[in-house]
Amino acid sequence: MKSLSPYESAKRELVMTILYMAVITFQAVYVAPKSLSAAIVIFIIFQSIGVLMLRHYVKKVRELKEDQST
Asked: Where are the transmembrane segments (predicted)?
């Protein structure tokens, strides 16, 4: 298996974070008819984690992109 460059790896992690956030949104919508309060808690907690991960990976991709271009 070919090893990915740090830039490609960071891009993959960014896409996986976006996918994670979409899955959590789907789960919150699925839980909502049964328990609205549980759905809100799931959505807020896990999306907050997702936003922090997203910020981290966007920053990482930008830094690696700048390093690649120089």
From this structure: 12-30, 36-54
